[in-house]
Structures are given as structure tokens and as C-alpha cells.
């Protein structure tokens, strides 16, 4: 007869990233605000609410640029929708760029448009360079915390996106403060050194227990 089966040991090690010393969000006074989205272009519906929110912001007199970084089967329909809404001078669609960090360092706001149920590296990179982030909750890592590390709004609702972006654009100092808090949050909880220490600790535990 064997003894009771011991439960498997699961050790959670937060993913680490290098965090910049400066905050990119609205770092240059008077410069046109720039917004970036990184998402696969799989469905037009994923981007329709955002495009409509941008149209409302332009109608309100906001001057901004939007970059959509991604590729996929819906690229042509999305480009068509951009033209139909009269946003060709505001919205640019480009393929994924690598490395993405230098690109983010020249932007102001990152939109987390879809919860992928897995770690969103683009979201982490955006926070690490000091972009103000907004969008849906990140259920895998919990990086996006409302009014702490960013603004949570419903990316499927044009008016929710509009309200969130309008707030960030209207109060750049508050947006910059959120970006700063997000950057410091990553430095405290998702540093590369902390990740390495976690792996070393896990290996030592495994050696000690013979697992």
C-alpha cells in the first residue's frame, strides 16, 4: 500500500522585463498625442469600436494619431473601414515591428484592446517604457489595474473607449502619473533580477526535494 499522493508543487515566477528610467507618456509638451494598439488583425469587429471612438474624438477637436500594429486576415476590411470613416490621415496600420520598445518610446498611450488569456508582452513593454495604458482587464497577469496602473474601459463599447481616451488626452499630467505608477509597479514586481532569483530558488528547491 502506498502513502497519500503528494500534490504537485507549483511555483509562480512573475515574468521579468527591463524597465526604463524615464516615462515616455507626454514627455514632449505640445507634441501631437499618439496612441498605439498591438493586436492580430483577425476580425473587423475587434477594431470597429476603437475606430468609432477615434472619430468622436476628432469631432470634439482632439488632434491625435493612432497606430495599429498587427497583421491577419482582416487587414483589408479594417483598412476599408478606416477609409469609410474618414480616418486615413489619423489611423495608420503597420505590421508588427521588432524590436518594439524603441517604437513605444515615441508614443503616449497604449490600448489593451483584447484579453488574450495569456501574458501580453506588448502591454508589459508599453508599461515598461512609461506609456499610459487603458483597455480591458488583463486576467492573466493583472498588470492593468484601474486608476493605479492605467484605466480600465470596455474595448467593445465605443463610448467607453471614447470616455477613457478623452480623459487621458484631456489631463496629460494625470495620464503621465498613471504611466509612472505602472512603470514603478513593474520595477517592483516584474524585474528581470527578480525573475532570475525566482528561477534559482525553484531549482534549489527541486534539488533539495529530489524532484
Spatial shape: globular
Helical percent range?
Answer: 25-40%
Whole-angstrom Rg: 20 Å
**The CATH homology group name:** Glycogen Phosphorylase B
SS summary, helix count: 7
CATH class: Alpha Beta
CATH architecture: 3-Layer(aba) Sandwich
Helix-strand pattern? EHEHEHEHEEHHH
Alpha carbon gap, first and last residue: 22 Å
CATH-defined fold name:
Rossmann fold
Largest sheet descriptor: 6 strands, parallel
Strand order of the largest sheet: 3-2-1-4-5-6
Number of strands: 6
Strand content: 5-15%
Total domain units: 1
For the residues shown, what is the average pLDDT? Answer: 87
Structural class: alpha/beta
Low-confidence stretches: none
Write up what this structure looks like:
With 211 residues, the chain is of the alpha/beta class. It has a single domain (34-205), classed as Rossmann fold (3-Layer(aba) Sandwich), CATH 3.40.50. The chain is built from 7 helices and 6 strands, in the order E-H-E-H-E-H-E-H-E-E-H-H-H. Strands 3-2-1-4-5-6 form a 6-stranded parallel β-sheet, sandwiched between helices.
Summarize the structure.
Helices cover 39% and strands 11% of the residues. With 211 residues, it is an alpha/beta fold. The chain has a 6-stranded parallel beta sheet, with helices on both faces.
Amino acid at each position: 500500500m502506498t502513502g497519500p499522493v503528494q500534490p504537485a508543487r507549483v511555483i509562480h515566477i512573475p515574468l521579468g522585463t527591463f524597465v526604463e528610467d524615464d516615462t515616455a507618456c507626454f514627455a514632449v509638451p505640445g507634441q501631437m498625442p499618439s496612441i498605439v494598439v498591438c493586436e492580430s488583425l483577425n476580425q473587423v469587429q475587434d477594431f470597429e469600436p476603437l475606430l468609432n471612438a477615434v472619430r468622436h474624438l476628432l469631432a470634439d477637436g482632439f488632434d491625435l494619431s493612432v497606430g495599429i500594429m498587427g497583421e491577419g486576415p482582416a487587414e483589408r476590411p479594417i483598412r476599408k473601414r478606416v477609409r469609410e470613416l474618414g480616418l486615413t490621415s489619423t489611423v495608420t496600420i503597420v505590421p508588427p515591428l521588432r524590436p518594439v520598445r524603441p517604437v513605444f518610446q515615441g508614443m503616449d498611450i497604449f490600448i489593451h484592446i483584447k484579453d488574450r488569456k495569456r501574458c501580453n508582452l506588448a502591454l508589459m513593454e508599453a508599461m515598461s517604457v512609461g506609456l499610459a495604458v487603458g483597455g480591458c482587464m488583463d486576467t492573466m497577469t493583472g498588470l492593468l489595474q484601474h486608476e493605479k496602473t492605467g484605466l480600465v474601459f470596455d474595448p467593445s463599447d465605443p463610448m467607453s473607449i471614447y470616455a477613457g481616451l478623452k480623459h487621458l488626452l484631456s489631463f496629460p499630467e494625470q495620464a503621465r502619473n498613471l504611466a509612472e505608477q505602472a512603470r514603478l509597479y513593474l520595477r517592483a514586481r516584474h524585474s528581470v533580477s527578480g525573475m532570475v532569483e525566482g528561477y534559482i530558488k525553484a531549482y534549489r528547491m527541486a534539488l533539495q526535494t529530489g524532484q
